[in-house]
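Exercise 7.
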Amino acid sequence: MSDRVYDGLTPSEILILEHDTIKRVLAVLQNLARRARDGDGWEIDSFRSCVEFFRNFADAFHHAKEEDLLFPALENRGIPRDGGPIAVMLMEHVRGREFVKQIADALEGVQNEDEAAREQLLHAADEFFGLLPHHIYKEDNILYPMGDNVLTEEDQGKLHTQYCEVASRTFGDKSPEELKMIADELEERWGDLSGLSRRITT
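Solution. The predicted structure, written as C-alpha coordinates, is:
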Protein backbone atom coordinates (compact mmCIF):
# COMPACT_ATOMS: atom_id res chain seq x y z
CA MET A 1 0.00 0.00 0.00
CA SER A 2 1.66 3.23 -1.09
CA ASP A 3 1.80 6.31 1.08
CA ARG A 4 -0.26 8.11 -1.55
CA VAL A 5 -3.32 6.09 -0.50
CA TYR A 6 -3.28 8.12 2.70
CA ASP A 7 -2.63 11.54 1.13
CA GLY A 8 -4.96 14.18 2.51
CA LEU A 9 -6.50 11.88 5.13
CA THR A 10 -6.35 12.32 8.89
CA PRO A 11 -5.46 9.27 11.02
CA SER A 12 -9.12 8.79 11.98
CA GLU A 13 -10.20 9.05 8.34
CA ILE A 14 -7.69 6.33 7.45
CA LEU A 15 -9.18 4.00 10.05
CA ILE A 16 -12.74 4.80 8.93
CA LEU A 17 -11.78 3.97 5.34
CA GLU A 18 -10.46 0.62 6.53
CA HIS A 19 -13.71 0.06 8.41
CA ASP A 20 -15.57 0.37 5.12
CA THR A 21 -13.52 -2.50 3.69
CA ILE A 22 -14.06 -4.59 6.84
CA LYS A 23 -17.82 -4.06 6.66
CA ARG A 24 -17.87 -5.29 3.08
CA VAL A 25 -16.31 -8.61 4.07
CA LEU A 26 -18.57 -8.85 7.10
CA ALA A 27 -21.53 -8.62 4.71
CA VAL A 28 -20.02 -11.39 2.60
CA LEU A 29 -19.60 -13.59 5.69
CA GLN A 30 -23.22 -13.07 6.60
CA ASN A 31 -24.31 -13.87 3.06
CA LEU A 32 -22.28 -17.08 3.08
CA ALA A 33 -23.76 -18.09 6.43
CA ARG A 34 -27.27 -17.36 5.21
CA ARG A 35 -26.73 -19.44 2.06
CA ALA A 36 -25.49 -22.35 4.18
CA ARG A 37 -28.42 -22.06 6.58
CA ASP A 38 -30.87 -21.97 3.66
CA GLY A 39 -29.41 -25.15 2.15
CA ASP A 40 -27.70 -23.45 -0.78
CA GLY A 41 -24.27 -24.91 -0.02
CA TRP A 42 -21.19 -24.38 2.13
CA GLU A 43 -18.60 -22.27 0.32
CA ILE A 44 -15.61 -23.50 2.32
CA ASP A 45 -12.94 -21.66 0.33
CA SER A 46 -14.81 -18.37 0.63
CA PHE A 47 -15.27 -18.87 4.37
CA ARG A 48 -11.50 -19.45 4.59
CA SER A 49 -10.85 -16.27 2.64
CA CYS A 50 -13.04 -14.36 5.10
CA VAL A 51 -11.04 -15.79 8.01
CA GLU A 52 -7.79 -14.85 6.29
CA PHE A 53 -9.05 -11.32 5.73
CA PHE A 54 -10.32 -10.79 9.28
CA ARG A 55 -7.16 -12.18 10.85
CA ASN A 56 -4.70 -10.30 8.69
CA PHE A 57 -6.42 -7.10 7.54
CA ALA A 58 -8.96 -6.40 10.28
CA ASP A 59 -6.85 -7.63 13.19
CA ALA A 60 -3.11 -7.75 12.44
CA PHE A 61 -3.18 -4.62 10.25
CA HIS A 62 -6.11 -2.47 11.38
CA HIS A 63 -6.55 -3.35 15.07
CA ALA A 64 -2.79 -3.28 15.61
CA LYS A 65 -2.72 0.37 14.50
CA GLU A 66 -5.38 1.13 17.07
CA GLU A 67 -3.92 -0.89 19.92
CA ASP A 68 -0.23 -0.11 19.37
CA LEU A 69 -0.43 3.47 18.08
CA LEU A 70 -3.75 5.29 18.45
CA PHE A 71 -4.80 4.09 21.90
CA PRO A 72 -1.43 4.90 23.54
CA ALA A 73 -1.54 8.36 21.94
CA LEU A 74 -5.03 8.89 23.38
CA GLU A 75 -3.85 7.75 26.81
CA ASN A 76 -1.03 10.29 26.64
CA ARG A 77 -3.68 12.98 26.13
CA GLY A 78 -5.74 11.93 29.13
CA ILE A 79 -8.21 9.37 27.83
CA PRO A 80 -7.93 6.44 30.28
CA ARG A 81 -7.20 2.94 29.08
CA ASP A 82 -9.15 1.31 31.91
CA GLY A 83 -12.83 1.89 32.54
CA GLY A 84 -13.47 4.07 29.48
CA PRO A 85 -14.07 3.72 25.73
CA ILE A 86 -10.59 2.33 25.06
CA ALA A 87 -11.24 -0.53 27.48
CA VAL A 88 -14.53 -1.32 25.74
CA MET A 89 -12.87 -1.35 22.31
CA LEU A 90 -10.09 -3.64 23.54
CA MET A 91 -12.60 -6.04 25.06
CA GLU A 92 -14.55 -6.13 21.81
CA HIS A 93 -11.37 -6.78 19.83
CA VAL A 94 -10.80 -9.86 22.01
CA ARG A 95 -14.39 -11.03 21.47
CA GLY A 96 -14.08 -10.56 17.72
CA ARG A 97 -10.88 -12.61 17.60
CA GLU A 98 -12.62 -15.42 19.46
CA PHE A 99 -15.54 -15.46 17.02
CA VAL A 100 -13.15 -15.61 14.04
CA LYS A 101 -11.23 -18.43 15.75
CA GLN A 102 -14.47 -20.36 16.27
CA ILE A 103 -15.28 -19.99 12.58
CA ALA A 104 -11.79 -21.13 11.57
CA ASP A 105 -11.83 -24.06 13.99
CA ALA A 106 -15.18 -25.25 12.63
CA LEU A 107 -14.22 -25.26 8.96
CA GLU A 108 -12.56 -28.69 8.86
CA GLY A 109 -15.60 -30.25 10.53
CA VAL A 110 -17.92 -28.39 8.18
CA GLN A 111 -16.00 -29.78 5.23
CA ASN A 112 -16.52 -33.27 6.68
CA GLU A 113 -20.27 -32.58 7.04
CA ASP A 114 -20.12 -32.49 10.84
CA GLU A 115 -23.41 -30.99 12.00
CA ALA A 116 -21.98 -29.71 15.30
CA ALA A 117 -19.22 -27.87 13.42
CA ARG A 118 -21.79 -26.36 11.08
CA GLU A 119 -23.80 -25.08 14.04
CA GLN A 120 -20.63 -23.69 15.65
CA LEU A 121 -19.70 -21.80 12.52
CA LEU A 122 -23.16 -20.34 12.01
CA HIS A 123 -23.43 -19.32 15.65
CA ALA A 124 -20.00 -17.67 15.63
CA ALA A 125 -20.81 -15.85 12.39
CA ASP A 126 -24.06 -14.55 13.87
CA GLU A 127 -22.27 -13.39 17.03
CA PHE A 128 -19.56 -11.67 15.00
CA PHE A 129 -22.17 -9.98 12.85
CA GLY A 130 -23.92 -8.80 16.01
CA LEU A 131 -20.72 -7.36 17.44
CA LEU A 132 -18.76 -5.76 14.66
CA PRO A 133 -21.10 -3.15 13.13
CA HIS A 134 -21.80 -1.67 16.57
CA HIS A 135 -18.11 -1.76 17.44
CA ILE A 136 -17.24 0.11 14.26
CA TYR A 137 -20.02 2.63 14.86
CA LYS A 138 -18.68 3.42 18.34
CA GLU A 139 -15.17 3.93 17.03
CA ASP A 140 -16.21 6.05 14.04
CA ASN A 141 -18.70 8.23 15.93
CA ILE A 142 -17.46 8.33 19.53
CA LEU A 143 -13.84 7.32 20.06
CA TYR A 144 -12.26 8.79 16.94
CA PRO A 145 -13.96 12.21 17.31
CA MET A 146 -12.97 12.19 20.98
CA GLY A 147 -9.40 11.55 19.90
CA ASP A 148 -9.46 14.28 17.29
CA ASN A 149 -10.49 16.71 20.03
CA VAL A 150 -7.51 15.91 22.25
CA LEU A 151 -4.69 14.99 19.86
CA THR A 152 -2.38 17.81 18.85
CA GLU A 153 -1.37 18.55 15.29
CA GLU A 154 1.99 16.99 16.10
CA ASP A 155 0.26 13.86 17.42
CA GLN A 156 -1.80 13.60 14.24
CA GLY A 157 1.25 13.99 12.02
CA LYS A 158 3.14 11.31 13.95
CA LEU A 159 0.23 8.89 13.71
CA HIS A 160 -0.08 9.52 9.97
CA THR A 161 3.61 8.71 9.49
CA GLN A 162 3.28 5.57 11.62
CA TYR A 163 0.21 4.41 9.73
CA CYS A 164 2.08 4.78 6.44
CA GLU A 165 4.93 2.71 7.85
CA VAL A 166 2.55 -0.04 8.98
CA ALA A 167 0.95 -0.04 5.52
CA SER A 168 4.34 -0.95 4.02
CA ARG A 169 4.48 -4.26 5.92
CA THR A 170 3.00 -7.65 5.09
CA PHE A 171 0.43 -9.55 7.13
CA GLY A 172 0.15 -13.28 6.60
CA ASP A 173 2.58 -12.84 3.68
CA LYS A 174 0.26 -10.35 2.01
CA SER A 175 0.38 -6.58 1.76
CA PRO A 176 -2.65 -4.55 2.86
CA GLU A 177 -3.42 -3.95 -0.81
CA GLU A 178 -3.39 -7.69 -1.52
CA LEU A 179 -5.68 -8.28 1.47
CA LYS A 180 -8.01 -5.59 0.16
CA MET A 181 -8.06 -7.47 -3.15
CA ILE A 182 -9.40 -10.48 -1.22
CA ALA A 183 -12.21 -8.22 0.01
CA ASP A 184 -12.90 -7.03 -3.53
CA GLU A 185 -12.98 -10.58 -4.89
CA LEU A 186 -15.26 -11.82 -2.11
CA GLU A 187 -17.66 -8.93 -2.57
CA GLU A 188 -17.71 -9.38 -6.34
CA ARG A 189 -18.79 -12.99 -5.88
CA TRP A 190 -20.89 -12.94 -2.74
CA GLY A 191 -21.61 -9.37 -1.69
CA ASP A 192 -25.13 -8.10 -2.40
CA LEU A 193 -27.25 -11.22 -2.43
CA SER A 194 -30.81 -9.92 -1.99
CA GLY A 195 -29.36 -6.62 -0.81
CA LEU A 196 -28.05 -7.97 2.51
CA SER A 197 -24.57 -6.50 2.11
CA ARG A 198 -26.04 -3.02 1.85
CA ARG A 199 -27.66 -3.27 5.28
CA ILE A 200 -24.45 -3.37 7.37
CA THR A 201 -25.17 0.03 8.86
CA THR A 202 -26.05 1.34 12.31
